[in-house]
Please model this.
Amino acid sequence: MRPQPYPYFLGPLPEQPKQDEAEFYKEDDSGKVRISPTKFYRYLSSIGYRYDGVNERLIYIKDNVYRHAFIAEITMDLRKRFDKQEDVLNELIKKLDIYLRKSKIALLDPITIVKYHDPDNVCRLFFKNKYVEISKDGQVFKYYKDADFMIPESKIVKHVIFEECGPETDFAKFMKNISTDNDKVDEVTLQRLRSSMAYLLHNNKSSDVKPIILLTDYTKEKNHGGTGKSLILKALSIPKGSNMVSLNGKEVALDSKFRNQNLTLETELVGIDDLKVNFNPEGFYGGSTWGIQIERKGKTSILLSIEDSPKHVFTSNSVPLKSGDSTIRRFITIELKRFYNANHRPIDDFDKLFFDQWNEDEFNSFFHYLFGCIQEYFANGKVIPEPTIGFAKEKMLINDIGVAMYDFFETLELGKEYPNSDLLDNCHKNNTRLEDITATKIALRIKKFADFKDYEVVEKNNGERSKILKKKAN
Model:
């Protein structure tokens, strides 16, 4: 069956009827309570219950925050409201089985659910008491009842926000630490981290390509992680809550067509921690360019447009990508400095587990730090800076052409003319892993090597074809 796009009906929010206009019962001349079904449904709508016809579900809305509701909730709600009016409650008990049938619930006032997206240059974060609008000009704290949009209850962080910031959060110090190399903070790495977090938190309805953020380690050698990448994912999950899906890259079959089965229509961010070395990123390219297909076993597929698709952030101890225009265009790779490792962890510096052992003041300072990241991101034109020279591109090239071929090209002298036949013979002689290499593969891979090194390959044909590696002219 062809996957169908998930429909959202746009339109203004319907006004809720006033409660005094929705009285649904009265006493007749004999004193018996009579219920008007039409007015009863109007009354239920006035106290927050609506019918979402698109998804055929009951919705409860209060102060522009909605959630999926259940028939039992209406029953309990009415019992509380009419506990002192026994005659009304008795009549309701007789009729509720009829009034609350699935076929009757559709008589509630309809509501059109518009999937929430942030404005282009504003990011909103939602807390128990207020929501916050962050732009390049700063933060504005607002009440939900004053909003001109609706949000699902799942977007609300289970913390209270205070307008006063408090002391600098330990997370700010942690961010500086993972940007520190040889006792000096790399300001570009720090800004890239801050900008990438802001980009991932900004739930923008954009049809542009959504690049995938890849967090890896700033090292050429093989390593065992421990630089703090997973802590970044945990930090993002706090404000995103249930709208972020976190997966273990070692356990999830990322090449399966069911890899997105844990996603929902409200998922805004997918974090995959510790990717396998042989990870193939091509399966995720569609999510960054044209949308995402949610496919579950035995159920109809749902195709999310690029506007409704979540953003992605991956972590990996290595760089499981290959060089090439498609990879460079779709991924933003950020290398964390080796400030932390298996023998030096964040808890050694801060004496407590981040998030799990924080109090509300520490959470408040953390959220204000995120506000600052987002404000800076907008002020800089939503640009994630270009990285300082690291090892990621070299790792991508090695993944592409192979370590043996890379090491062989490293032995070539600049300016020296190498006949094609000699290049092929030396490849076969110097490394058994290159015995099957062909002249065509050498020509393709030496070009990639030269591009990475900022060299050029000069082709000559003096009776025999040959190649010369030279530095590019300025």
Residues 79 and 89 are 7 Å apart (CA to CA). Residues 172-361+379-393 form a domain with the Rossmann fold fold (CATH 3.40.50.300). The chain has 15 helices and 22 strands. Residues 360-379 form the longest helix (20 residues).
